[in-house]
């Protein structure tokens, strides 16, 4: 007879998620899984729609990272129409995109995942939120966080029209250019973004890295998985959020494959399970072996830790310094410890801020030539981008009028769906022994999925936030014998 | 006096409406001071049974975003209706069905087939589909039923007011919330924004010729749109004439035409039909072949004219099997 522990709801990924933990006769964990109870069917209803409307349609998959969908989709349109965006348009897109990565990563660090470290993993759940962060770092800093988010988002609003669901992406370019006045104003925001990123890295250093207990927690076994990693790199194998090659490294950190977006079908498969609406991507050349890590399992991970692991370095100087420190502190490449994702994320925020400066200072970015409409007959278009939460693929096929006949999407968080299940099960196994449920269970499970920032996240991207979780422990008659909640 | 109790809930939505609330930035603190938020799953701990135990109509206002797609969403929407004095449909999905409502061009079976079988990365040789109940060696795993049809909120429960937009702009949210808190409300059923069509406040309206006539319809990507001129006058489909204003012309300011996220103007039953009649009146063609040529450029009327409003249109939807 198995006992069941239910954690429901842990809030969204396109709806809620729930965690089910089954105990065996001895009271140890027999099985644990995360269920995603919602599906929306974009790949079906995209069929028949006009290709040029896809950047607006598909971005509503996620209101937290619409900018990622918007530009993955726009890049798929470039490929579909065989058009190269003008150099100015490409710079504008990259500038918006890095601005978005910067604000989204910060938000995660200060509002979501960060509180676990800044306030402390053992602090009462009621304090592990942005208010607790402000209590720890001071109100001045709290205001700074809100201010930089607001200013960064004002850039996206100006260029994209709507900040939640921008509209400016078109095949071959963008709909709106950058004026000289914009440039002058945004140079200030970009410079402040770098200063803010420096501050964040210092805060991470003094609060987390100088605390041995935290470092031990990061290096501990509970969240360690020896998996493959996937991410975009540029021609020099440096981290790139907007464009490049998809590089995959094996659990030893060796390059396993490197391919262009257009070839993704040769490399990625998705497994289906009957107990959840989400699919499980894996590397085709290794194969789907279920929820296990190691070289023989096709499970790979994406998002900040993966991007650092697949690259030979960061593309900007300050981020690179921190990259080197990251690996020297954590014992070399690759790092398999999931909680190191938080550190990788703030290093990436620095690269995004440095890129903002580089791009907005480029005299060409205010140029008038923001569109190319030199189109070929549309047929197939595949676009890839690094969303904050992982590699994002948009694949469209159309008739000659540019009306969709087929769509395939691999959405960022989905890349990590198998790994998130593995982390939750591992945390549960570590904390439930002989029927004794450690009080830290709730906390550790929260930390497991918060590290992936799996868009459950959308959730506490605000306000005094914590992800509401309830664990009900059932005896073999299905009766609740204990409830743990935050 | 006790502060009014407020509930915020989401159904089938993307989280963008939640981001719009966060984008209120400092303003949100004033709101939070004036009310008692009793339910907000993204930010506050709660239990369904606590809501169930509350007296009927004890929640002053409930804001619900997202469309209705699963039995769980329907259940909670009904529960919140019973417990609330006012229910506000927040954002395009709750208001009109939204972009996820385009799923009504298909049914559940087709959506499952596409997601779990036909998509090229899917490797599902055994033909496994998600089930409401799965027996595992460890116990039963359950999923909420996925409905055949996406519904707007008012197709599921009675709705008092609507805050439109994808996502609603922060200034409209603040105005709406202030009106509610002050009890300064229009008649029930009102959409809390302008009564006028978008064109009436659009800056580009002044560039519109007195008698607008178009000889061609162009797709937005095919041309480089003049940043000053009326899109429709240039032959680019813009839903401005059929769409409620008050959005601040956000998309127009980015030099992109309107797609109707604020929904139809008052008295308009069907957004797409209204737009089609506006369009028909400006097409400059007499001969049948000219009309044919011009209208054949509208390749996807459903996706274009009902991008945000298919579930609330009068079009018959595709039923399940």
Structure explained in plain terms:
The complex is a heterodimer of chains A (486) and B (321). Chain A has helices at residues 42-45, 54-58, 66-80, 87-112, 114-118, 130-137, 139-160, 180-209, 212-219, 304-310, 317-330, 341-360, 412-415, 417-431, 441-452, and strands at 3-7, 18-23, 29-35, 169-170, 173-174, 228-233, 245-249, 255-259, 268-271, 280-283, 300-301, 380-387, 390-398, 404-410, 432-433, 436-437, 470-474, 480-485. Chain A has 486 residues and is of the alpha+beta class. In chain A, the strands form 6 sheets. In chain A, strands 3-2-1-17-18 form a 5-stranded antiparallel β-sheet, with helices on one face. In chain A, strand 15 (432-433) and strand 16 form a beta hairpin. Residues 9-15, 456-470 and 474-479 of chain A have low confidence and may be disordered. Chain B has helices at residues 16-22, 27-34, 48-53, 71-83, 91-96, 108-118, 170-181, 198-201, 250-253, 271-282, 288-295, 301-305, and strands at residues 5-10, 36-39, 59-65, 68-70, 84-90, 133-135, 140-142, 146-151, 161-163. At the A-B interface, strand 3, helix 1, helix 7, strand 9 and strand 14 of A face helix 1, helix 6, helix 9 and helix 12 of B.
Summarize this, please?
The complex is a heterodimer of chains A (486) and B (321). Chain A has helices spanning 42-45, 54-58, 66-80, 87-112, 114-118, 130-137, 139-160, 180-209, 212-219, 304-310, 317-330, 341-360, 412-415, 417-431, 441-452; strands spanning 3-7, 18-23, 29-35, 169-170, 173-174, 228-233, 245-249, 255-259, 268-271, 280-283, 300-301, 380-387, 390-398, 404-410, 432-433, 436-437, 470-474, 480-485.
List the SSEs and their pairings:
The complex is a heterodimer of chains A (486) and B (321).
Chain A: E1 3-7, E2 18-23, E3 29-35, H1 42-45, H2 54-58, H3 66-80, H4 87-112, H5 114-118, H6 130-137, H7 139-160, E4 169-170, E5 173-174, H8 180-209, H9 212-219, E6 228-233, E7 245-249, E8 255-259, E9 268-271, E10 280-283, E11 300-301, H10 304-310, H11 317-330, H12 341-360, E12 380-387, E13 390-398, E14 404-410, H13 412-415, H14 417-431, E15 432-433, E16 436-437, H15 441-452, E17 470-474, E18 480-485
Parallel strand pairs in A: 6-11
Antiparallel strand pairs in A: 1-2, 1-17, 2-3, 4-5, 6-7, 7-8, 9-10, 12-13, 13-14, 15-16, 17-18
Chain B: E1 5-10, H1 16-22, H2 27-34, E2 36-39, H3 48-53, E3 59-65, E4 68-70, H4 71-83, E5 84-90, H5 91-96, H6 108-118, E6 133-135, E7 140-142, E8 146-151, E9 161-163, H7 170-181, H8 198-201, H9 250-253, H10 271-282, H11 288-295, H12 301-305
Parallel strand pairs in B: 1-2, 1-3, 3-5, 5-9
Antiparallel strand pairs in B: 4-8, 6-7
